[in-house]
Amino acid sequence: LLAANEPQMVKDLQELYWYTNGDVKTMSDLTEFLKANLVGGRFKGKNIRSRFRTEAATGMYNSILSGPSTPARAIVGTNMIGIMRPFQEYLGGMITGNKKDMVIASAQINAIGEAWAEGLRLFKHNWELGLAKKPQTYTGKFDVEANTKEWQRLNEFNNRYGSDTEKQAYGIINTIVEANQSPWFKYPQILMGSGDAMARTIIGRYQMRLQAATDAIESGVNLDDVVAVAAKQDDIFRKKIFAKNKYDQWVVRDKATMMAGDETALTTPLRGSLKGLEEIRNLTGMRLFFPFVRTGLNALDLTWQHTPILAQFHGKWKDIMAGDPKLLFDRYGIRQQDISQAKALMKGRMAMGTMVMGLGAIMATTGNMTGTLPEDKETRDLWKLRGIK
User: Fold this and answer.
1) Using only C-alpha atoms, what is the Rg of the chain?
2) Count of H helices and E strands in the chain?
3) Which of 117, 140, 147, 265 could form a disulfide bond with 196, CB atoms 3.0-4.6 angstroms apart?
4) What is the mean pLDDT of residues 200-212?
């Protein structure tokens, strides 16, 4: 029997040798590695997380995100942040009286129809990828599943070399894997991934038009004609912003645009004093909650950039206002000719935040915006008697 199976065993050992970077060298290593993937543990000095824990985390994410309103709010919020960028740039230019910034922002706003059309195509494409159980264009916020093909391959190895108990355990976990990968379970993640792809595409189209408008101005085109000229030439800059993937879809590759997409989708890696929070994932039980920590902190960071006065103390504000071309290109991918537009965006964000907070204060003082009443009935009735809103 061993002689008959020897060619297959040699082939499997070779495959796992390359897959584990040389850790699996013998049949004993192979069975030990498969067991570690099943129940977790250490193999050749490395920690291996059990597939059951991974699927438990996936199931938790699916349950938390399963409410119909969750993906709807995420898609609306993400795309609203992305779509507002040129409007905020225009506002920033208007505040400083910089007509050039306002014209470049107007050129981007003029591209909104084409940007939406292409964004919706990417939304549909990513939705179809999700239904087909294929990786989406951009990494999702809560995508913790290991590669399904790799899992299925390990399952094949276990069926050949595992014990009866291990085969049964793999079979049970495989049922959970298939359930978690089902579009009926994953639809919130699929929708949010599709929404992220749409937002990133729209931002990419904005960046195309921004570069076309900037090039037109540098070429001596009259400011009054820049919007029309840029609209005819923005495809010249497509390959600087996008690259085609294996599905023949245009995917963002420009550094500044990718970082703007991360900011919009709230997936920016934590930096500075918050970078240490990345280590939370290594603590027992905290890996499950880390994606939510990053998203929440990114939301707070973006809110800070819109907050009156406080926005000026934000690290990104300081970097952009200092205007060091090398630092801005290395840290944010911002070209030297786009620094003025980046400044306009930051000023527009703070101005918009100021207007919203001012409007909220006016509405609150006039009784047009109120909070909820206390949950306790006795206190609630007392508030009503006293006319407290």
Assistant:
1) 26
2) 18, 4
3) 265
4) 96
Interatomic CA distance for residues 209 and 232, integer angstroms: 10
How many Å apart are CA 316 and CA 318, to the nearest integer? 5
pTM of whole model > 0.70?
yes
| Residues 6 or more apart whose Cβ sits within 8 Å of residue 145 | 54, 58, 180, 181
Report whether 287 contacts 281 (CB < 8 A).
Answer: yes
Lowest mean pLDDT among 234-243, 298-307, 349-358, 364-373: 364-373
Could you tell me which of 68, 101, 62 has the C-alpha nearest to residue 85?
A: 101
The torsion angles phi and psi of 275, rounded to 5 degrees, stand at -60, -30
CA dihedral 31, 33, 34, 40 (to 10 degrees): 130
Yes or no: say if 313 and 333 are a contact pair by the CB < 8 Å rule.
no
Res 3 pLDDT > 70: no
| Distance of alpha carbon 75 from alpha carbon 127, whole angstroms | 13
Distance from the Cα of residue 152 to its chain's centroid: 27
CB-based contacts of 267, cutoff 8 Å, min separation 6: 139, 141, 196, 294, 295, 298
Confidence of residue 144 (pLDDT cuts 50, 70, 90): very low
Structure tokens at 119: 């964004």
Closest CA to 137 of 229, 265, 43: 265
| C-alpha triplet 195, 343, 81: angle, nearest 5° | 15
* Structure tokens given for 149: 């093909």
List the structure tokens of 217. Answer: 């101005």
Closest CA to 320 of 335, 310, 304, 303: 335
> Nearest-CA neighbor of 229 among 239, 245, 242, 215?
215
CB-based contact 229:219 (threshold 8 Å): no
